[in-house]
Amino acid sequence: GAEKALFRALKTRSKTPKYGLLYHSTYIGRAGLKNKGRISRYLANKCSIASRSTASL
């Protein structure tokens, strides 16, 4: 997804996307502006851990 978005931005000569789906979710939207990046990284890390533990079962 991120690679596709990057190449689409380069092809159309527009700005490259800075954030992904998690950053624009309602859960992150309720956080303060200062903490949005930190909380989205935290949530992405927890999703990664959950998917790894599920895959190992």
Automatic annotation (TrEMBL):
GO MF term (any one): snoRNA binding
Q: What is the scientific name of the source organism?
A: Pseuderesia eleaza
- Please give the Pfam families that the UniProt record associates with this protein: Nop
Gene3D superfamilies named in the record: Nop domain
Q: Domain Nop: where?
A: 1-57
* GO cellular component assignments: box C/D methylation guide snoRNP complex; small-subunit processome
What protein am I looking at?
A: Nucleolar protein 56-like
